[in-house]
Amino acid sequence: MATTEIPKLAAEKRERLGSRECRRIRETGEIPAVVYGHGLGAMPIRINQKEVIDLLHRHVHLVEINVRGTPQPCLIKDRQWDYLGTNLIHVDLERVDPDEKVTSKVGIEVTGEAVGLKEAGAFLETPTTELEIECKATDIPGVIQVDVSELGVGQMISVSDLNLPEGVVAKTDGDAVVATVNIGAVVEDEDGEAEASDAEPEVIGEKKDDAEEGDG
Question: Which of 8, 27, 42, 95 pairs as cysteine with 36 (C-beta 3.0–4.6 A)?
Answer without folding.
Answer: 42
